[in-house]
Automatic annotation (TrEMBL):
NCBIfam families named among the record's database cross-references: thrC
Name by which UniProt lists this protein: Threonine synthase N-terminal domain-containing protein
Family per similarity comment: Belongs to the threonine synthase family.
Source organism: Felis catus
A Pfam match: THR4_C
The protein's required cofactors: pyridoxal 5'-phosphate
Length: 743
């Protein structure tokens, strides 16, 4: 099945920016338009008849024992269409012998070739086809089938397959050799199934054939309905006239644009998909990558990113870039407290969990023949994570995608600054700003909303601006996975049974990390309370307690936990929008008031709704250092300052009636001076790398972050730009970077 990206073309963008200017549709724009028309043809091809199937085939693919034949017959009965079993109806009739006899006669390799030839000589339309377990191992025959059908992968847990095959004849399964177990053979086959599928049906343990058949039909319906999963702005006003068209975006558009044109943030128009209890239980034994594939496929429509391609991106993002094979492991600290370690990525912070994947999503979604400049504001960790992530995209994509990271010149730790500067590559730059993070973030939002400037960049330089901060939906979505995965790990390790509640405690600045936990709950993870932990910049804690978001007479106070030294929590808007039943008018009113008057108050009903799920408190600098010291003294584990903030608040706010998962958002080595002060190590005026090596000699938990140690050797002498705290200065700098990179 051909795949077409969904995105607006340059002419639309330019006309939006300059409605009075006539825009000539040149060759580049025509290429853009062709993609839009192609998607229209894609829609028509699937809706050509009244039937669910139309002229296309529903092709069931999966390993031996997946139930393809049984499920195929049930679907055929439901749809009243022809059912074809490749084993019985094609191979055995072509060969005039049983499949097992043929396999015994010619051997594995020759069997695959002859099986493929038989399928190549077969054609059908409007049918349900049940493949053999080995069909996907023959490329030419699969391309032949894919041209006129949707391939549905019946993904059955390995333990269930092995159990089922004990009661089945296995003499016609290709690849059985002495010394190869059935389990190993099935594991080997998975690479072929993952290569070909258009949509996956997760067949959880205990699901009946009838239930699987219904899942297949729902998956096919979703695949056909390319307009079903759209996004709206948090500031979108619903039309009073029901017939008036709602302004929506597809996932690919939301990722590319980053921020909505009205200044709001993109959110799904419909509810988050939800997994049932059996589906979650079937993921308990899965790897992080497998969990991510299942969850993100449910959240990203295959018309935006084909499921098989998304799976490849996830494997690339989390394959070899993380120091721990579990990606985001959970460690028991003491009592009912567990640490979710989110710092095993290449830059040592939780941002890697999103920013190793987002660049691949972004590169896939952008249209051809356009350049993109990604602007990022960072309070410390995002900058190096963005630069590292986008340095890993292909060479061709690097020629069209560049990154500029703006950080507060004196508002990040020495290590973080060295890391941001040292992460600059051929398509990414670090820019220090003589102000705080809130200025950087607000300035970038103002640049995005400046239609004259963004339109000028498009018309003059052929470059479109986008963002990789957590305001970008493609950045926020992958964070849902690690919150779900942490809960499943607790079940896997026997600390809880599935369905038992947990609390989560998260050091919070921009509200993205804790919001991702809210989304995990919406998907079915039983999180009881969200504990918001602030440092001395505790505007969020005050808001959760009072409903009053007040920035008047507040200035950012530099702390030992700089990544949450934030006063304007952008992602709060998404949560308030959800609580207020998607009242875009209210969001516009509140956040315009925040911009103009520096405060807003939500009504009593919303405050009560917020406090049903959220509790909050803050931690002083003294308490932060004391928590680092006491935790190391009692358990030999070193908390980074952000995690220490969360632990202090968890100790104070959590009632110990259920486990609490404390999000550890960065590796302690990024904050060596604070750690040395907390552990009462004699102050030494050494370089950041020397401090890292000193701390690594303590043989503490978690172990040293080797990637950070290695990178620091090369980082300390790189050059970077510094700008004044002036939006026009930043705009000039952005234009110069675009000229140098793309012109």
């Amino acid at each position: 099945m051909l795949h077409f990206n969904r995105c607006p073309h340059l002419k639309q963008i330019a006309q939006k920016c300059f409605p009075s200017v006539h825009v000539r549709t040149d060759k580049h724009v025509q290429l853009f338009l062709s993609r839009t028309f192609a998607l229209a043809e894609f829609r028509k091809s699937w809706h050509s008849t009244h039937s669910l199937v139309g002229d296309k085939n529903i092709i069931l693919m999966g390993p031996p024992g997946a139930g393809k034949t049984t499920v195929g017959r049930i679907i055929g009965q439901k749809l009243g269409c022809c059912v074809i079993d490749v084993d019985d109806d094609i191979l055995e009739k072509t060969w005039n012998m049983s499949v097992s006899e043929k396999l015994q006669d010619v051997g594995n390799e020759q069997f695959l070739e002859e099986e493929g030839k038989a399928v190549l000589n077969f054609s059908a339309s409007g049918s349900v086809i049940s493949l053999t377990g080995s069909n996907p191992m023959h490329d030419a025959s699969m391309w032949h089938l894919k041209k006129n059908g949707i391939i549905v992968y019946l993904d059955v847990p390995l333990i269930d397959l092995v159990s089922r095959l004990k009661f089945m004849k296995v003499d016609r399964i290709v690849g059985q050799n002495a010394g190869t177990s059935m389990k190993d053979l099935l594991k080997f086959r998975r690479q072929y199934y993952k290569k070909w599928y258009d949509t996956r049906v997760f067949c959880e343990s205990g699901a009946s054939p009838e239930e699987v058949a219904d899942k297949v039909l729902n998956a096919v319906k979703r695949y056909q309905d390319v307009d079903s999963e759209t996004f709206i702005s948090t500031r979108h006003n619903w039309p009073k006239d029901c017939e008036q068209k709602v302004s929506t975006k597809f996932f690919s558009e939301a990722v590319i644009e980053g921020l909505a044109s009205d200044g709001g943030l993109f959110v799904p128009e419909k509810e988050f998909p939800k997994l049932n209890c059996r589906e979650w239980k079937s993921l308990v034994g899965a790897t992080y990558i497998e969990r991510a594939q299942i969850l993100l496929e449910k959240c990203i429509h295959p018309a935006d990113i084909p499921a098989a391609r998304l799976g490849e991106m996830i494997e690339t993002a989390y394959g070899e870039n993380f120091a721990c094979s579990k990606i985001a492991p959970v460690r028991h600290l003491s009592g009912n407290q567990f640490i979710l370690e989110l710092f095993h990525g290449p830059t040592g912070s939780f941002k890697d969990l999103s920013l190793q994947l987002l660049p691949h999503l972004f590169a896939h979604c952008i249209p051809p023949n356009c350049n993109y400049m990604i602007l990022v504001a960072t309070s410390g960790d995002t900058g190096s994570a963005v630069l590292n992530g986008f340095s890993r995209i292909s060479k061709n994509h690097k020629q069209r995608i560049a990154v500029a990271t703006f950080f507060p010149e004196n508002g990040v730790s020495d290590f973080q600054k060295a890391q941001i500067i040292g992460s600059q590559k051929e398509n990414g730059w670090a820019v220090g700003v003589k102000s705080d993070f809130d200025f950087c973030q607000t300035a970038i939002k103002r640049i995005f909303k400046d239609s004259d400037f963004t339109g000028f960049l498009i018309m003059e330089h052929g470059t479109i601006l986008s963002s990789a901060n957590s305001i970008n939906w493609g950045r926020l979505l992958p964070q849902v996975v690690y919150h779900a995965s942490a809960y499943l790990d607790l079940v896997s390790q026997g600390f809880i049974s599935f369905g038992s509640p947990v609390d989560v405690c998260i050091p919070t600045g921009n509200f993205g990390n804790i919001l991702a936990a809210v989304y995990a709950k919406m998907m079915g993870i039983p999180i009881r309370k969200f504990i918001c932990a602030s440092n001395q910049n505790h505007v969020l804690t005050d808001f959760i307690k009072t409903g009053h978001y007040d920035l008047r007479e507040r200035k950012i106070t530099p702390t030992f936990s700089p990544s949450i030294d934030i006063l304007k929590a952008s992602n709060l808007e998404r949560h308030l929008h959800m609580m207020a039943n998607k009242d875009g008018g209210l969001m516009t009113k509140l956040f315009n008031q925040l911009e103009e008057q520096q405060h807003f108050q939500i009504d009593k009903m919303l405050v009560e709704k917020l406090q049903q799920d959220f509790v909050a408190d803050w931690c002083s600098e003294r308490e932060c250092l004391a928590a680092i010291h006491s935790t190391y003294s009692t358990s030999g584990y070193i908390l980074d300052p952000h995690t220490a903030v969360a632990k202090v608040v968890a100790d104070r706010m959590q009632d110990k009636t259920c486990p609490v998962i404390v999000a550890s958002t960065a590796h302690y080595s990024k904050f060596a001076p604070a750690i040395m002060q907390a552990l009462k190590i004699k102050e030494i005026n050494h370089t950041s790398s020397s401090q890292l090596y000193l701390l690594s000699s303590y043989n503490a938990l978690p172990p040293p972050h080797e990637a950070l140690l290695e990178r620091m050797k090369q980082q300390e002498k790189m050059e970077y730009q510094v700008c004044a705290a002036d939006v026009d200065v930043l705009k000039n700098h952005v234009e110069k970077l675009i000229q140098n990179q793309f012109i």
